[in-house]
């Protein structure tokens, strides 16, 4: 049980990447008061959590409506996750990539902080793959949702103390951590591809 919890926690921590969100949050809220920063962090966390919970609840139903087997989605999702991981390792790090989207948006809590920094395509794919209804019971899906929300709470905590954390690790430190997370994510992605292939050939 603990190993399953730890595995899913690492998977969510990797794809959500709370540390990589810190430079984005600092850039977007640099001219705000502490009260405004708290409000933005709260709104971004709730918005990103809502998006991921939505896909946990109805993502698989959407696939069933358009008649796509989950094994096919798992293979495709694993490939996308792997490509996403490669961009984290070899391309622009998450801080650099997300900061490139920073401009004078009216609601920066939603874009780019909530989406795509927290609720990234990789995170959306991960929540759907880790809550497969034919594989996991309602209780296990509930626990997975709690694990995801725990990582979101960590992201919220990091945003609240973003200035202090960023002064400690710097942009280079955040980029390094993002690349390590990308390496871990690549292993998770390969595992999903192999599981999808196994399910496909068994059927």
UniProtKB/TrEMBL annotation:
Q: Which InterPro entries match?
A: Multi_antbiot-R_MarC
Q: Name one Pfam family in it.
A: MarC
Subcellular localization is given as:
Cell membrane
Q: How does it sit in the membrane?
A: Multi-pass membrane protein
Q: What are the record keywords, sorted?
A: Cell membrane, Membrane, Transmembrane, Transmembrane helix
For this UniProt entry, what is the primary localization, expressed as one broad class?
membrane
Which sequence ranges are marked TM in the entry? 9-26, 46-66, 73-90, 110-130, 142-161, 181-201
**Presence of keyword Transmembrane:** yes
What is one cellular component GO term in this UniProt entry?
plasma membrane
State the family named in the UniProt similarity comment for this chain.
Belongs to the UPF0056 (MarC) family.
Q: Which PANTHER family match?
A: UPF0056 MEMBRANE PROTEIN YHCE
Query: What protein name does the entry list?
Result: UPF0056 membrane protein
Origin organism is: Flammeovirga aprica JL-4
Its organism's taxonomic lineage begins at:
Bacteria, Pseudomonadati, Bacteroidota, Cytophagia, Cytophagales
């Amino acid at each position: 049980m603990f190993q399953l919890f730890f595995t899913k926690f690492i998977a969510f921590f990797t794809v959500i990447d709370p540390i990589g969100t810190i430079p984005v949050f600092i850039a977007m809220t640099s001219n705000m008061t502490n009260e405004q920063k708290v409000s933005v962090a709260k709104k971004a966390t709730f918005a990103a959590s809502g998006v991921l919970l939505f896909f946990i609840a109805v993502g698989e139903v959407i696939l069933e409506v358009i008649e796509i087997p989950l094994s096919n989605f798992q293979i495709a999702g694993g490939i996308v996750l792997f490509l996403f991981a490669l961009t984290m390792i070899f391309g622009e790090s998450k801080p650099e990539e997300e900061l490139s989207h920073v401009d004078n948006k009216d609601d920066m809590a939603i874009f780019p902080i909530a989406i795509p920094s927290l609720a990234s395509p990789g995170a959306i794919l991960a929540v759907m793959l880790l809550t497969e209804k034919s594989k996991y019971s309602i209780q296990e899906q509930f626990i997975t949702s709690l694990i995801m929300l725990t990582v979101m709470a960590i992201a919220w905590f990091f945003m609240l103390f973003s200035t202090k954390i960023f002064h400690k690790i710097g942009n280079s430190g955040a980029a390094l951590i993002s690349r390590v997370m990308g390496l871990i994510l690549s292993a998770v992605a390969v595992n999903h591809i192999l599981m999808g292939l196994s399910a496909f050939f068994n059927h």
